[in-house]
Amino acid sequence: MSKMFRRIGRRRALEGAAACIVALGLLLWWLLPLGESAPSGAITISTGTQAGVYQQYAKLLRTALDKDMPDLKVTLQTSDGSQENVKRVANGDADFTIAAADAVETYKLQHRPNAGHLRGVARLYDDYVQLVVPRGSDIDSVADLKGKRVAVGPPSSGVRLIADRVLKAAGIDAEKDITPFADGINTGPDRLRQGKIDAFFWSGGLPTQGLQQLADRFTFRFVPIGAGLVATLHKQGGATRYYRATNMPESAYPSVQNGVAVPTIAVSNLLMTRTDMNPRLTEWVTRTVIRSRDGIGTRVHSAQLVDLRTAIYTDPLALHEGARRYYRSVKP
Question: Left (φ > 0), alpha (ψ -120 to 50) or beta: where does 114 sit?
């Protein structure tokens, strides 16, 4: 009888060990394709300004890429934002970048150099337009900016692109009806605090570090951008189709919003590259982007919105072949 129990015990132990091996194999498949060595070489990622979400996200993505591909050197380049990023990748000055969909579409509609060579890797998270004024300001709408000193972002930024269009939709000529300044999220908050400007536009993920830091030392509020203005914005045509009316949730900046959501505009961000980027390397980069979501999301809240189900929708760009390979490999 004891021999029979010992045999049963051994069989169960073997079954348990086999189950562990299967589980370990599945885990290894998830983390690293079996029999495939990690790509090596060097890539450059064009990011954004130091106080913006693009830069924060890219730094954490580089750490994840270093872990998955230790022989791949990843260099980050700061930039003014989306418009500069798209141009850099198109011209070969960077290999990967993040850019808002409206900036990508604008580059294509203007038939800029190598626009046809741009390809999508993943849809990431949304940018929200954030129009910031001092708490006691008399500016309650975009139309109230007329005659004011307004920071509209650097010329090659995505902020400038969308700020000019929002102002136009409100009947304001950015060159004549306001005093425009080229400040972005790196300088705009301090200039607002010092009284050197009356308002500034920012378009970025939620929350943005530069605004969180401003909230610690200055009382400000957000000017709502209503659905009616968004409808007028859409009439401009072209890339404005990528703008949608939404609400900035009350949890974005709790100490500023006091439990109140703010009507505004959102536009999706894309991770992008070029057609000539190595498909195998791009497949690995795509895998890391999707699988690092939770880790990066603990530090950059916007990254929590990266989702396998929506990542493939990189309109206006077709998917890069390497990215397509990854999405096919994980399709249920």
Answer: left
